Amino acid sequence: MNKQTRMLAAGLLLFSTGIVNVLVSYAFRHTTTPIRTLQVPFVKEGWRAIPSAVILPEADGTQMIASRAYRFHSGPPLQFIILHNKHYTYGVDSHLPTICYRGAGWKLAENTRLSTSSGRIQLVGFKGTSQGSRLLVYYGFHVGERILPDGISRKFYEIKDRFRYGAPVHFLVEAAILYKPGQQDASARYVRKFFEDMEPSLLQPG
Prior knowledge:
- It contains four helices and nine strands; from the N terminus they run H-E-E-E-E-H-E-E-E-E-H-E-H.
- By secondary structure, the protein is α+β, with helices and mostly antiparallel strands.
- Strands 1, 2, 3, 4, 5, 6, 7, 8 and 9 form a nine-stranded antiparallel beta sheet that branches.
- The protein is globular.
């Protein structure tokens, strides 16, 4: 690519970026962000939940939509939370699990991924250790009737929300489970089963 072509490409990129910003700003002024809720059952497919209190500072506009401990029959408890931010600046990104768990003293390692068979729920995760305890955490963002990790796909759906509603309408979805040595893979399968079973409820139109 010669110098003139590179300059033209750069100019087109800047121009298109400006157009997108103008359109997004226009959409923001002329639409109202809808209020959606995620309806996740307490009992489904052998899973049973009890409310689980989590202390959450809400000064930044973050709201706790759900906080529960689920068990599949006599299996271990799986902590499940959904957060929503009513003031979109960095959204719920200020409450990313990597930030919160590290701040609570967990040593994090080994990034991993998890996906349901449909591919509509895709999560990123990590394991953590603290004073002999082992933790496995998976999370993603509910946008566009999907749950996705941070990245290009998430940004695409957030842009669509901006055009439709004036601002992104998304939720942070997280599942965490303590596990014993040698049980990390089994715990990951346990979390995957949870999202497989809950997918129809989590992804129903809001």
